[in-house]
Amino acid sequence: MHPNPLFRSDDVALLDGLVEEIGFGMVFVATPDGPRVAHTPLLISDGGCVRFHLSRRNALVPHLDGSRALVVVNGAEGYVSPRWYANRDTVPTWDYVTIEMEGTVRKLDEVELEDFLYRAIDRHEGRLGGDRWSAEETSADNWARQLRGITGFEMAIDIRRPTFKLSQKQPQEVREAIAAGQVAAGNAPIAQAMERFAP
């Protein structure tokens, strides 16, 4: 988390909504072999926890149940060039959106894991539009085999550490120039984040 309080938010609904919107992140945990990370789809449960699944063979799986972990979700990001400032006597920086979540992890039972999978499929198929794929199109044998290959987890979120670093320290005209520069450079998502999260 960036130390500047200007870049923070305490809006839990906004943060959880962003986790749902992005839907993918990284899980970090300490293991006897050192720190490890896994990349995984994420959903916020009805109880406000974050759920995810990993391959059963993932090195984190034996160490997660009952452990404290860190989940990181990254949103839009982009290099900020001094060329976009009227006064170029400055240095480059980076704008970005990220959420760090910390808490204790527990293993999901099979019913909970299947519920997570159905919800994830429904959410992501719905985003694509058109002819949706349904889990019922998978044979029972194939579904059971795939299910045996993964392990589901839920982390109760104790701490949220978001950073919305979007050139808020700059005057409005400079921020507008930065946003225009980002769009011209092909990075519209960070310009949209500047308008959405730090208007």
Automatic annotation (TrEMBL):
<dbReference type="InterPro" id="IPR012349">
    <property type="entry name" value="Split_barrel_FMN-bd"/>
</dbReference>
<protein>
    <submittedName>
        <fullName>FMN-binding negative transcriptional regulator</fullName>
    </submittedName>
</protein>
<dbReference type="Pfam" id="PF04299">
    <property type="entry name" value="FMN_bind_2"/>
</dbReference>
<dbReference type="InterPro" id="IPR007396">
    <property type="entry name" value="TR_PAI2-type"/>
</dbReference>
